[in-house]
């Protein structure tokens, strides 16, 4: 799968990742509210964390070749020392993965990554959803018959403080996606 991904990545719009169930392609490149949310979360985390840690928003991906999974979190909380590698980051080195839900493919963040991140050993997964102004922090990986899963889920609404791993940050001022015409329901007159 990785060879196929490397061949097509530069020729297709959006982002392609390898999941436990195959390739997932988010056709749309993230827009303003998505990128602004990721940037604000990165800054807030870095203000709260020790200097030797980073809230990284760039490349590379995180990959577990034995499981055949390669993901690219919007924000990765990781020690700078664990970034000094060739190729993909080891997902077990992540302290947390933070995702801003894509408008075009929300199931990738709410279903696929909820399945894949505990399988990869990512201890904390934070989801921010600009469609609804809500999110969840998932943690405490445990074994189930279907494989590793998060045991704890803490839901939040924008405006509340949230704790990601050991750091509490504000969700005030995070942007929301503007309603699209199909998102608007007609009002009765």
From TrEMBL:
Xref: Gene3D superfamilies: tt1808, chain A
Organism superkingdom: Bacteria
Start and end residues of each Putative restriction endonuclease domain: 6-138
Entries under SUPFAM superfamilies matching the protein: Restriction endonuclease-like
Keyword Hydrolase: yes
GO molecular function: endonuclease activity
A Pfam family hit: Uma2
UniProt KW keywords: Endonuclease, Hydrolase, Nuclease
InterPro entries: Nuclease_put_TT1808, Restrct_endonuc-II-like, Uma2
Name of this protein: Uma2 family endonuclease
Organism: Streptomyces montanisoli
